[in-house]
Amino acid sequence: MQSERTKGYEEYSDTELAAEVRNNSLRAFECLAARYQRQLLGFVSAKIASREDAEEIVQDTLIKCYRHINKYNSRYPFKTWLFTIARNNLISRLRRRETVCEPLQPHQEGSTASSPDREIADSELSELIWRTAHSLPEDQFTVIWMKYREDMDSREISRVVGKSKVNVRVLLHRARKNLARVLSDLS
User: Domain of 92?
Assistant: First the structure.
């Protein structure tokens, strides 16, 4: 749901909004921020123990986005550029301070389960998978998160993590293989 402040911009593409922000439209920026704040918070919260720290990193990301909007190259998806900023902020924060990670919360979109028992089983399985994914090496976790939680393709992920598409596919393969191995050891 759009606020009155962003009304009129909801139909704009990210690229169009970025162009408006370049022309000093605060309303266009508010629309971009509203579009991505929840996704950014989910991404950052997966690696930061404190909700307040995660929110601060997201705010820093949005501030950097606004300040450096002229560096955005509209040939590439805005989301990729924004998540690159978020990832770099996250890495900087983790390097500055040892932050203990908490278990991930499972993705809670609409469920297609046919019964309450099935919903509980699916939720528990999802929680187990993401908790297990949290133990993967940082680069593997990041690509898995972006692929399955942010629905990014290999090309977009490669831009965010600064690796080739082939390297991203290798990381995804290794992450899936490691997840399968750990999960099979648990059963």
Answer: 10-102
Amino acid at 86: A
| 82, 102, 145 from 57: Cα distances, Å | 12, 16, 17
Q: Are residues 97 and 146 in the same domain?
A: no
The CA distance from 55 to 57, in Å, is 5
Note whether residue 3 is domain-resident: no
pTM, two decimal places: 0.64
Cβ atoms < 10 Å from Cβ of 61 = 26
Alpha-carbon dihedral angle through residues 38, 39, 43, 46, given to the nearest 10 degrees: 50
Q: Does residue 72 contact residue 81 with C-beta atoms inside 8 Å?
A: yes
pLDDT in tens, 127-174: 777 778 888 888 899 898 888 888 888 899 999 999 999 999 999 999
In a domain, 168, yes or no: yes
Return the SS3 of 77: coil
Place of tokens 């990014």: 152
Torsional class of 162: left (φ above 0), alpha (ψ -120 to 50), beta (otherwise)? left
Rounded Cα–Cα distance for residues 52 and 114 (Å): 36
